[in-house]
UniProtKB/TrEMBL annotation:
Keyword Cytoplasm included in the entry's annotation: yes
The protein's name: Uncharacterized LOC103175442
Keywords in alphabetical order: Cytoplasm, Immunity, Innate immunity
Residue ranges, compositional bias (Polar residues): 73-82
Domain Death as annotated: residue spans: 442-503
Gene that produces this protein: si:dkeyp-97b10.3
Record region (Disordered): 20-84, 377-400
Low complexity composition bias: residue spans: 46-61
Matching InterPro entries: DEATH-like_dom_sf, Death_dom, FIIND_dom, NLRP_Inflammasome
CC annotations in GO: cytosol
GO biological process, one term: signal transduction
Domain FIIND: residue ranges: 96-377
Location relative to the cell: Cytoplasm, Cytosol
Transmembrane residue ranges: none
Length: 515
């Protein structure tokens, strides 16, 4: 059963897309829908005029109407430009600038690889980083992270293909999460009428394909059944499916006088982009991302071949690459660009069949002048030290020192140490499977677990004693941030994570910094 287009997202140029895409359908069925779209456009225009009139009269109330529904800390620690996540497609037909105006934009708080949203009321919200859209019926806390398709794409049934990121989504009360709209990478301009969208859903360690309820030029809507890894997929009878694409450039950091770059042509899919970022991070040849406009000017067509060209005397290997969905590939293909002499140069991505320019950019000396051999040697030394560390030292990556922090007078600073009252608050929110993460994450022994269970039969008290045992082992490192980091693989609830965040934030706000 093919889902119907999401009417409330179709305005302005989407009307033309619909007419072109459904030109072979019954015109009698199309006319009423077009009239509805024209009416919606007129309503929006009149609303816009009214808002302009109010603005001229000094009645701007936008700040009051917006409300504060985003999380407490709306600052993303890492820049979106640096990460490449959340790249907006350069396509006027599929731009979400008009379609998603009715959705309140919210910025999540990012901890490690997980995004957190605290929504204070019912409504429709869109994440400014990932493009995810949520419809909620009450106050709710949602956490989500971007996963790789590498482990799941091979389980897709039949001719279903990936068309967007895979997310691991959790919620403190899933019943309040009505629907989720997933961003997709397809360009629907002139798409065939048999295009279908569904949702790939991992349930109870089984992979299922579930029905979507609507789609728009930018998103696929799904009514929440249960929460676990989920992502959009599509099915189409034609092969020439077009995707919005991106080009990512990384410069290899070494002491060679020449220039070496790795240039990726990829689908605009956060899961694929994250795989590329991870591959570069762990590459033997260290690299840095060159900050250039990433969206392709034209669409990328599956099965077509593309060539990277340069006006300078650059060696580019391979000469051409076929565009495929790299989501399921652990190793992503790329162009290697080498220049013997460091000069400014242009790069252009061309489709071989049509000679159409898909993407172009100019790289200048100022893009890489701050990258030198000292940075590279420093990076290698850091990696060398990392290998010598034990797994118990991992939290030093977060800036948590194993040494005792002291105040100016030499006394031990314990401002971040978890109190027994806080441990009890955590114990009341944790589940009965605490022995699993006590051993796997907190380094307790099985005899410790047995002893704790003998001392008291009440589960909450057992968890409290377990946390107290961990605190005694950690000494001055028994902090909220350290505990949260230790439990990162324990599948704890968003509520527990939020409590630890609050503990950490409150101690920072209410105490004098240590020196």
């Amino acid at each position: 059963m093919k889902p119907k287009p999401l009417k409330r997202l179709l305005l302005h140029e989407e009307k033309d897309i619909l007419l072109r895409g459904l030109k072979d359908e019954n015109q009698d069925d199309i006319v009423p829908l077009v009239e509805h779209l024209e009416s919606a456009s007129d309503d929006e225009s009149s609303t816009s005029s009214s808002e302009e009139s109010n603005s001229e009269n000094g009645n701007t109330g936008s700040e009051e109407e917006t409300g504060d529904h985003n999380c407490e800390d709306t600052t993303i620690p890492t820049s979106q430009a640096d990460s490449g996540i959340g790249t907006e497609p350069f396509c006027p037909n599929c731009s979400s600038s008009h379609a998603n105006e009715s959705w309140e934009q919210v910025t999540p708080r990012k901890i490690q690889e997980c995004f957190h949203l605290k929504l204070d009321d019912e409504g429709s919200f869109q994440c400014t980083v990932t493009g995810l859209m949520f419809e909620v019926t009450d106050k709710v806390h949602i956490s989500y992270s971007i996963l790789s398709w590498c482990k799941h794409d091979t389980f897709l049934q039949g001719s279903w293909k990936v068309c967007g990121p895979l997310f691991d989504i959790k919620c403190n009360n899933p019943a309040l999460l009505k629907s989720i709209l997933f961003p997709h990478s397809l360009c629907l301009t002139g798409h065939s009428s048999d295009l279908q969208f569904k949702i790939f859903h991992v349930k109870d360690k089984k992979n299922e394909i579930e029905h979507s309820v609507d789609f728009s030029p930018t998103h696929v809507k799904w009514n929440v059944s249960s929460l676990s890894p989920v992502g959009p997929v599509y099915q189409n009878s034609t092969e020439d499916v077009q995707h919005h694409g991106v080009v990512l450039i990384y410069k290899v950091v070494d002491c060679h006088p020449g220039l070496l770059f790795r240039v990726y042509m990829a689908v605009n899919n956060d899961s694929v982009i994250k795989d590329i970022i991870k591959a570069e991070k762990h590459s033997k040849k260290k690299s840095v991302k060159i900050d250039k406009p990433t969206p392709c000017l034209k669409k990328l067509t599956l099965g077509k071949t593309y060539r990277l060209l340069s006006e300078s005397q650059a060696d580019i290997i391979p000469g051409e690459i076929e565009f495929i969905d790299m989501g399921s590939l652990k190793i992503k293909s790329y162009y290697e660009v080498y220049l013997e002499h460091p000069v400014d140069f242009d790069l252009s991505l061309i489709q071989i069949d049509s000679s159409e320019k898909i993407w172009t950019s100019k790289l200048r000396e100022c893009d890489w002048t701050n990258i030198n051999c000292n940075d590279n040697r420093k990076g290698r030394d850091v990696n060398k030290n990392k290998k010598r560390k034990s797994s118990s030292d991992d939290y030093e990556e977060m800036g948590i020192s194993k040494r005792s922090r002291k105040n100016a007078d030499g006394t031990l600073c314990k401002k971040n140490i978890l109190t027994e009252k806080q441990l009890m608050q955590l114990a009341q929110k944790m589940d009965k499977n605490w022995p699993v993460f006590a051993i796997s994450c907190l380094d307790l022994q099985s005899q410790d677990i047995d002893q704790i269970k003998k001392e008291d039969e009440i589960v909450t008290i057992q968890i409290f004693n377990m946390l107290k045992k961990w605190k005694n082992l950690e000494l001055d490192n028994a902090t909220p941030s350290n505990l949260l980091f230790k439990l990162r693989n324990a599948n704890i609830s968003p509520e527990v994570a939020a409590i630890l965040e609050d503990f950490d934030q409150n101690t920072e706000d209410n105490n004098t910094p240590c020196t």
